């Protein structure tokens, strides 16, 4: 196995150093604190500065954590709060529906799964946390698109990837479906990513009512839908109830 990369270790040490105390240090203070040559410390600081992980004060020349790194930290805390507020409700939804439950947030034109509760049976299942789903072919993604949690414009410029013959690939199809999502208050994707599979999702709102994520159930189409391929109303209701409960815990007052 390859060993640790020294330059990354040193960069991490500099970031930790800047995160402590006053958070503003000169080049000499950084070099002395970490036992680095000034040239080495300066090269790492310049690299961190080029990606906005570090900023340099023009007046004093001292370094501090940059806006990009602080934004990453805030995003991490936001996702962690969303997960922590959702865990009990997601467990309850899995128990009541008998299906797997996933929590999704937008990430760079995809849906990032940040929490996954297995279907409560003895079948073999794989953990989806950290996986990415397409926005246009998943119920979670449709919710995020319909309520403005992630930009719709890039998907309106061209046809999207087709996973099955049911995938909504054209901008017109997708736009029409998203209007239906907003009107109904929930989304479904029936055999749009995989034949025989379906999922149902509803929006999670934070303070101010903005949609910050989506929660949904997924499983075999013959369990989630009736003989005409329509999601069972009882499962839609359970999913929406869970979404409302999580939204209340996040401080949403209306939805």
CATH-derived topology of the largest domain: Beta-Lactamase
Shape: elongated
Radius of gyration of CA atoms, rounded to a whole number: 23 Å
Q: Mind telling me which CATH architecture of the largest domain this is?
A: 2-Layer Sandwich
Number of helices: 9
Looking at this protein, list some descriptive labels.
about 260 residues, alpha+beta, Arc Repressor Mutant, subunit A, Beta-Lactamase, 6-stranded antiparallel β-sheet, two-stranded antiparallel ribbon, 9 helices
Write a short abstract of this structure.
By secondary structure, the chain is an alpha+beta fold.
Write the layout of secondary structure elements.
Elements: H1 6-19, H2 27-34, H3 38-50, E1 54-56, E2 63-65, H4 67-97, E3 100-107, E4 110-117, E5 132-134, H5 139-146, H6 153-156, H7 171-184, E6 187-190, E7 197-205, E8 211-220, H8 221-224, H9 233-249
Antiparallel strand pairs: 1-2, 3-4, 3-8, 4-5, 6-7, 7-8
Domain IclR-ED: 68-252
Keywords: Activator, DNA-binding, Glycerol metabolism, Transcription, Transcription regulation
GO biological process, one term: glycerol metabolic process
Notes on the protein architecture:
The chain is an alpha+beta fold and 255 residues long. The chain folds into two domains: 4-72, Arc Repressor Mutant, subunit A (Orthogonal Bundle); 77-248, Beta-Lactamase, CATH 3.30.450.40. Helix content is 44%, strand content 19%. The protein is built from nine helices and eight strands. The strands form two sheets. Strands 5-4-3-8-7-6 form a six-stranded antiparallel sheet. A hairpin with a 6-residue loop joins strand 1 and strand 2. The longest helix is centred in the N-terminal third of the chain and has 31 residues, at 67-97. The chain is elongated and about 70 Å long. The model has no long low-confidence stretch (mean pLDDT 90).
């Amino acid at each position: 196995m390859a060993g640790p990369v020294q330059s990354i270790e040193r960069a991490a040490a500099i970031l930790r150093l800047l995160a402590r105390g006053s958070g503003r240090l000169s080049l000499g203070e950084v070099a002395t604190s970490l036992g680095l040559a000034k040239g080495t410390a300066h090269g790492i600081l310049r690299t961190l500065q080029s990606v906005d992980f570090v900023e340099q004060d023009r007046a004093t020349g001292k370094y501090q954590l940059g806006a990009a790194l602080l934004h990453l930290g805030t995003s991490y805390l936001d996702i962690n709060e969303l997960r922590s507020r959702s865990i009990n409700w997601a467990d309850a939804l899995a128990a009541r529906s008998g299906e797997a439950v996933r929590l999704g947030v937008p990430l760079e034109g995809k849906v990032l799964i940040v929490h996954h509760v297995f279907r409560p049976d003895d079948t073999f299942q794989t953990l989806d946390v950290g996986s990415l789903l397409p926005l246009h072919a998943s119920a979670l993604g449709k919710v995020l698109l319909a309520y403005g949690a992630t930009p719709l414009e890039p998907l309106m410029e061209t046809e999207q990837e087709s996973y099955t013959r049911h995938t909504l690939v054209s901008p017109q199809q997708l736009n029409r479906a998203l209007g239906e999502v907003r009107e109904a208050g929930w989304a479904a994707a029936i055999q749009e990513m995989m034949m025989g599979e379906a999922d149902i999702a509803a929006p999670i709102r934070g303070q101010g009512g903005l949609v910050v994520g989506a929660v949904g159930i997924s499983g075999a189409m013959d369990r989630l839908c009736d003989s005409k391929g329509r999601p069972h109303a009882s499962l839609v209701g359970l999913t929406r109830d869970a979404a409302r409960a999580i939204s209340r815990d996040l401080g949403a007052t209306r939805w």
